[in-house]
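Appendix B, record 7
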Amino acid sequence: MAMKRTYQPSKTRRVRTHGFLVRMKSRGGRAVINARRAKGRKRLAV
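Structure tokens (predicted):
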């Protein structure tokens, strides 16, 4: 039997851990969003 790949994507889990709302909850997360805004990122969060 072949080994499974390590990344088994799940949209729900992805959003709950790296989503915009999660980022906005903590001070550090807001810092991340602001840093990305300052850099001019097209996508701020997942």
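Remarks on this record: The chain has a mean pLDDT of 95. The helical segments are 11-18, 20-25, 27-39.
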